[in-house]
Write a structure and sequence with these properties.
The protein is built from 13 helices and 16 strands. By secondary structure, the chain is of the alpha+beta class.
Length: 429
């Protein structure tokens, strides 16, 4: 057995014998005394070997390079000045993996590296405490999403990622050769989660990667992202917004408990008591009144989203009743004013993290909506025919996992929140 405990567990076992394993984070050799800070994914523990107290063979094995991988067996001893208030007195040391090259990234973070260098050598970069904290929080976000949606009666499904047509009617898709025909990487699970609702599953949720071939180069976009989606039958836009607010507040609550990781990142998560709602028109008026010109019918720019954050002073903001012309073809128009549809976005700390709508479930209305977007209903025959089989009103939404993680962690570039990001130029490692 290479270890009996993670470091976080071993800290609780003062006076007991344990075996831990990890990377040599720091080492200090002053001859008769050798200090090693050993790191695993849960933390750092000081290992101290004193000549005459531990065997000479152990002293020799303690003479390591930074980032060597070792396991150490010994007794936990209390020491208030050591990390975590305890240290390990070794009786056995085993070298498991030796550093044979100069590391391109400093895992201690003392020597900074450019982001591109870090991403090129992500397998070393991931050893840094702040980077590890980002992905620990990201894991908690998706875990919290699954937990809360399951509690609310949603069933997890897994739709296809290879499709025969662009799922949102756009041209920015990645084409691929699928045997004798052309296919595409899916832009969104949208159509398929709707078909699951039409199929009687009623409330479904998904965690899935999607791909968008947009040639952007911003700090908030990637070409491959992870989405957390729901679709719910017998529901309108208000039901969708209620559920989105509920799930998002639950995620924030769970992440706020991760004080160790948030402290490393120097971030703080506040939990609003509610999610305020504003109509699109009301916020356009606010921007204009505050000297940020915007025409009705345009989408909010990233700068305008940040301005709204300043004006409103709210952690979370729901924007609803959007111009129909700005939204996807499947967004349900209002009965009394078809220029406005039952769509909504959720902004967190000045960035759009979620988008949703009540969907069109009436085949004739869906065909009209496609034509207005310049799309041919014949290209969506399979999708439209599904609604001829008897479809309930339904609504749904999607949260961008990397965007939400980015804001929770207080980082400025979304690439920090993708373990191996894919953008316009990066396809490796």
């Amino acid at each position: 057995m290479m270890r009996t405990d993670y470091i976080s567990e071993a800290r609780k076992k003062a006076g007991q014998e344990v075996k831990i394993a990890g990377w040599v984070h720091e080492i200090r050799d002053i001859g008769k005394l050798i200090f090693i800070q050993l790191r695993d994914r849960t933390g750092i523990m000081q290992v101290i070997a004193k000549k005459g107290v531990v065997p000479d063979s152990v002293m020799e094995l303690m003479k390591r390079n930074k980032e060597d991988v070792i396991s150490v067996k010994g007794k936990i001893s209390e020491n208030k000045v050591a990390p975590g208030g305890v240290e390990l007195i070794p009786s056995e040391v085993e070298l498991l993996g030796k550093v044979e090259v100069k590391l391109p990234v400093d895992p201690t973070g003392v020597v900074p590296s450019e982001l591109d260098t870090r991403l090129n050598f992500r397998y070393v970069d991931l050893r840094k405490r702040d980077v590890s904290a980002i992905f620990t929080i990201k894991a908690k976000v998706i875990e919290s999403f699954r937990k809360r949606t399951t509690e609310l009666g949603f069933v997890e499904i897994h739709p296809a990622s290879i499709v025969a047509a662009a799922t949102e009617g756009g041209t920015d898709v990645f084409a691929l050769q699928y045997f004798e025909q052309q296919a595409f990487l899916v832009q969104s699970p949208q159509l398929y989660k709707q078909l699951a609702v039409v199929g009687g599953m009623d409330k479904v949720m998904i965690t899935t990667p999607v791909w968008r071939a947009e040639k952007h180069n911003t700090t908030t976009h990637l070409n491959e992202v992870l989405q957390m989606d729901v679709e719910m039958g017998f529901a309108d836009d208000n039901d969708g917004m209620d559920t989105l607010s509920d799930v998002t507040l639950h995620i924030l609550k769970e992440v706020s408990k991760m004080q160790e990781e948030l402290s490393v990142l120097k971030s703080e998560v506040k939990i609003p008591s509610k999610v305020p709602r504003y109509t699109y028109t009301a916020l356009v008026d606010k921007l204009n009144s505050e000297g940020s010109p915007m025409e009705w019918g345009q989408d909010f720019t990233k700068e305008q989203e940040k301005k709204l954050d300043e004006i409103l002073g709210e952690e979370l903001v729901m924007i609803h009743d959007w111009p129909t012309s700005t939204r996807a073809f499947y967004s349900m128009p209002h009965e009394t004013n078809t220029e406005i549809c039952k769509a909504y976005d959720l902004l967190y700390r000045g960035l759009e993290i979620s988008s949703g709508a009540q969907r069109i479930h009436l085949p004739s209305l869906l065909e009209d909506a496609l034509r207005k977007k310049g799309l041919d209903p014949l290209n969506f025959k399979f999708y439209i025919d599904a609604f001829r089989s008897g479809a309930p009103p339904h609504a749904g939404w999607s949260i961008g996992l990397e965007r939400l993680t980015m804001k929770l962690c207080g980082v400025e570039n979304i690439r920090e929140c993708a373990m191996f990001p894919r953008d316009r130029t990066r396809v490796h490692p």
